[in-house]
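Protein data:
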Amino acid sequence: MTEAKLNLAGQDITDCCKKVIPGQNDDLLLSKLQALVPDYPIRLALTGDEWYKLGGVVDMNGSRIANDIIEWAERTYLECGQNLQTLIDHALELQLIATRQTGKTLYFVVQTGDKAEDFTLIEIDKTHEVSDRMLIDENNPPADLEELIDPIQPFCIESYGFGHSRYTYRRKTDVKLFMEVINERHPGEHPAQRFMDDWNRSSAGQKHRMSDDWIIRPYRHTGRFGEQIVNVEIVNTHKNHLPHLEDFAGKKGSSLSNVLSRFDRQAGYPFAWFFYMLKGKLVSTHSAESVYKDISGDFAYLPERDEAVLRDWISTPYNV
């Protein structure tokens, strides 16, 4: 596959999400997304960990009062003359319930070429609304509006669901273009870019697509002065169990080569141990040091392209 321009609008993904009701799995959504880009393979690469966020407000009968508890609380507070006690009495009288949104983020990969950076990442949230707590704990009423919205010690109740799950489009990232922006803002070579460059020039890149086992995920964090910083992380999506490679004491030559080759076979591509050394805790950096001693001496079990990558790492180590 040669790199090609992907023409996929966020609005098309949004519309697709609205038309699909989640089932036992996400195959239907995947097929609908694939129909949007029939010329490019798309797959579900990763399902993230469960998270939750504030939901809305319902009454004791489950009737909807508001979709957004923050908007409702601020608006109702104003309607109550900015009198918190009036708002509390109102919520107690109606026995209002606060809900929460529980969800997982689905990461879909659209492959646009053979190089490590040639893919687009689509993030879609799969959420379900459930009852969370009584809006007001009569025995421990909130001291301010913030505590009413998100109390430290909530009056929890038995959880039950509202309606069906839903898909919500979050964002789409053209990894190649995104990394160009990251590299412009990053002093020196960004570790994630070096990871991809090393992949492309190694034997791993000749035999395997990086996005089949690793994805590039954007994230945002706050800097020292409160500024918002956009960065990127590499996430492993390999689903099979892989062994830990930690103790390399006394191993060299064929015994060391056999250990690394066995790991590569289990991972599914050559030179895999090197990339798992860069990211995660499965492979110790002692592996690279031991291999380097071998290839600097009498052993030559690495392909030339992998040997070049390893020598560069020994000269200027990095991790992601």
Q: What stands out?
A: The longest strand covers residues 119-134.
